[in-house]
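Structure (tokenized):
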């Protein structure tokens, strides 16, 4: 398996590199360290200076070689095979272009964002765009972690079913524990988001009907999850909670090394859904997003 690690020179990105190397050791994988020189974005029209584009591009090119050199040093610590690549353009587009063109990449690893003044920033939009547009799983972390406890968050979607198979196989390969979490959205809270609906007479009937529909969805979700994991020879504990989906997932994920969750496949230009966006914005969850 090939793991592409997107690097921008930040400490968080190098931690993601270390986590990817740790994963590579245990899955007998190879690493591609990938740096994008985004100097082309700095046009004279944007900067007001005719010569600044070349200067920035050259500086970023030099910095990129330093980043790749450090990536080689990290991989050497883990005795993991690694190759380094430098591309030019917009980071998210270059990452997706490369992984789409070369099917050997089976996982993308990257940090949430960069905030240091000395780094070429992989801002949140880059990570979100990669998560939304990638056809392969994306591992997002700011930490150097060894995966021993995996949390699988599921709902009634095709993305969740793919995530279940992925999490099951990953946990088996790593010898890690696996726990399943399904969150029941609070029906009254969902309805009360729409003030006009909440003012309808006999609103309690709507709430009760909504809760029945949600229960049916949860039952279908858990049945599908158990069936997939059973086919892998796995039987895992299941936790069902009621509340705000993203809050409950984040709360439980703090007790695990890694969260695996699915997102439904959409056009690459679309942004992730509300729950995935919240998970990315927290910077507190190590997660693999599967679609």
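Design, position by position:
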């Amino acid at each position: 398996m090939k793991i592409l690690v997107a690097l921008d020179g930040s400490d968080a990105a190098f931690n993601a590199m270390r986590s990817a190397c740790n994963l590579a050791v245990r899955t007998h994988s190879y690493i591609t360290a990938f740096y994008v020189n985004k100097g082309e974005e700095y046009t004279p029209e944007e900067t007001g200076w005719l010569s600044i584009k070349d200067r920035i591009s050259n500086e970023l090119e030099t910095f990129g070689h330093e980043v790749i050199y450090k990536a080689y040093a990290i991989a050497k610590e883990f005795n993991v095979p690694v190759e380094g690549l430098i591309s030019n353009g917009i980071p998210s587009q270059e990452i997706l272009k490369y992984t789409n063109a070369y099917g050997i990449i089976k996982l993308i690893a990257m940090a949430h964002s960069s905030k240091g003044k000395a780094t070429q920033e992989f801002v949140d939009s880059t990570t979100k765009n990669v998560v939304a547009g990638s056809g392969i799983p994306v591992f997002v972390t700011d930490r150097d972690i060894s995966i021993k406890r995996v949390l699988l968050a599921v709902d009634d979607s095709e993305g969740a079913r793919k995530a279940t198979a992925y999490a099951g196989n990953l946990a088996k390969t790593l010898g890690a524990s696996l726990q399943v979490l399904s969150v029941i959205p609070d029906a009254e809270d969902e309805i009360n988001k729409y003030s006009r609906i909440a003012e309808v007479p006999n609103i309690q009937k709507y709430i009760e009907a909504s809760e029945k529909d949600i229960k049916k969805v949860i039952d279908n979700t858990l049945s599908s999850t158990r069936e997939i994991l059973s086919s892998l020879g796995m039987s895992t504990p299941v936790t069902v909670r009621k509340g705000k989906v993203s809050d409950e997932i984040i709360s439980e994920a703090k007790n695990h090394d890694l969260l695996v969750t699915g997102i439904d496949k959409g056009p690459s230009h679309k942004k992730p859904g509300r729950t995935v966006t919240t998970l990315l914005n927290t910077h507190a969850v190590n997660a693999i997003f599967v679609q």
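Reviewer-requested clarification: Residues 2-140 form a domain with the Rossmann fold fold (CATH 3.40.50.620). The first strand starts at residue 2 and ends at 7.
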